[in-house]
Design a protein that fits this description.
It is built from 3 helices and 9 strands. It is α+β, with helices and mostly antiparallel strands and 165 residues long. A hairpin with a 4-residue loop joins strand 5 and strand 6. Helix 1 crosses helix 2.
Length: 165
């Protein structure tokens, strides 16, 4: 039996990982179910990934924070800088041995071409993001998007990245 991992060790594994460490499975657009859905089947994640060095660690993302009202239009002053300023809010869930252990919110902007982690700060002022949400949303952006422009996205929104990330 292996020693149990702490919550912080699991977070650190994600922070230290790259997209090459993950087995990514797309689940919408005909890819099949994610098996990460609400009890009534109305809300579901459209992407999942398993950490290849230790598949007890999995991610699921894409469930809409606004539930089944995916047409709800959100706009902010920072999203107006993108060619398509509408944005949708989503969750990325972290699972350990099948149990939900962490949930991080993020936004899709510019027609889904950019993922923005939830940040601290004023909409029009300085914005920061903590190391774990930064690393997690950067990771799923690299897993899902064909050519994510992570630094460009953060700069455009005005987010200061954590030191060393």
């Amino acid at each position: 039996m292996t020693d149990p991992l702490s919550f912080w060790q699991i977070q650190q594994q994600i922070i230290d990982s790259t997209e090459d460490d993950w087995h990514h499975i797309g689940c919408w657009g005909g890819g099949g179910p994610s098996f990460r859905e609400s009890s009534d089947g109305r809300f579901y994640h459209h992407m999942v990934a398993a950490y290849m060095p230790d598949p007890r660690l999995t991610l699921a993302w894409g469930v809409n924070i606004d539930g089944d009202d995916s047409s709800m239009e959100r706009r902010t002053s920072w999203s107006e800088d993108f060619s398509d300023p509408k944005m949708t809010a989503h969750y990325c869930d972290v699972f350990w041995c099948g149990s939900l252990i962490e949930r991080v919110a993020y936004y899709n902007v510019d027609g889904g071409r950019h993922m923005v982690p939830e940040f601290n700060g004023d909409e029009d002022g300085p914005k920061t993001v903590k190391p774990f949400p930064h690393a997690l949303i950067r990771l799923i952006a690299h897993l899902e998007l064909p050519r994510p422009e992570w630094k460009y996205t953060l700069e455009r929104v005005g987010i200061t990245a954590p030191e060393g990330l």
